[in-house]
Amino acid sequence: MDYTGYKSIILDDKGLAQLYQEGTVDGLELYENEYLAVMNENEEIVDKFKMKNGGLEKVPFYNFESRQMGTVKPKTFEQHFAMDLLRDRQITVKMIRGVYGSGKDYLMSAYAIEALERGYYNKIVYIRPNVSLKDVPETGYLKGSIMDKLGWTLGPLYDKWGGEDGVQMMIDNGQLELAPLQFIRGRSFENCLIYVSEGQNITTEVAKLLLGRVGENSALIINGDTHQTDNKVYERDNGVLKMIDRLKGHPLFGYIYLSQTLRSETANLANLLDD
């Protein structure tokens, strides 16, 4: 897939002057909510814009701030775009796709807890497809409550929101709901941030189901790495890729691809194993 949610353009002094005077440059075409990294002739980024309501709008610098995670700053221009996308409350369906360790869950969890603390939403509805890892044996049927069955899916949140005790406190206070995909049909989530992790493991039908749950004053945020699908069905019918293809350019949809592994040099080795 070629669409990344942003374009980069190199401009000489004349091109930069045209951009700032006329708000565009010759031959530039962007989808609504698509971002633009402007570089000078030395390929240094000198400015960032996004297409909003048919015109270019400058992208302000952002930090995410919360009691749980402190200050979270963008490490790359792609992360800067992703943070701006997440903060844009006019966009109600937001997707971050990226490689291993690129910060997908980190940025989304930082935004989610900030939005909750600021009162933008009453609660976070967390959904992670209950799909076993490819080539890893099934763990078998688990008895007990939803937490007993699906608590393991909260691992990315434990790492960032005060461990198991912190996450459990949010659940007990009604600020966080763990929602199995199997039981969301027919529900309407009002005043909620619907947070879908590992979204590469959903089909088009599940993507439609998720979109159909978004009620008033709610938003759907999804992350995933479509190189890490855990079942061949998602290679044939991938809901994330279908959403990007069909929804790009819609004013309610935004998307950014994160291309750099930032977790560690060792984690970056995983990308060398891709075909």
Summarize the structure.
By secondary structure, the chain is α/β, with parallel strands linked by helices. The protein contains 10 helices and 12 strands.
SSE layout:
Layout: E1 6-10, H1 13-22, E2 35-39, E3 45-52, E4 55-58, E5 64-66, E6 70-72, H2 77-87, E7 93-98, H3 104-117, E8 123-127, H4 146-150, H5 155-158, H6 163-172, E9 176-178, E10 192-196, H7 204-211, E11 219-224, H8 232-236, H9 239-247, E12 253-258, H10 265-268
Structure characterization notes:
It is a single chain. The protein is α/β, with parallel strands linked by helices. It folds into two domains: about 1-60, Archaeosine Trna-guanine Transglycosylase, Chain: A, domain 4, CATH 2.30.130; about 70-275, P-loop containing nucleotide triphosphate hydrolases (Rossmann fold), CATH 3.40.50.300. Helices cover about 30% and strands about 20% of the residues. It is built from ten helices and twelve strands. A hairpin with a 2-residue loop joins strand 3 (about 45-50) and strand 4. Helix 7 crosses helix 9 (about 240-245). The two termini are about 15 Å apart.
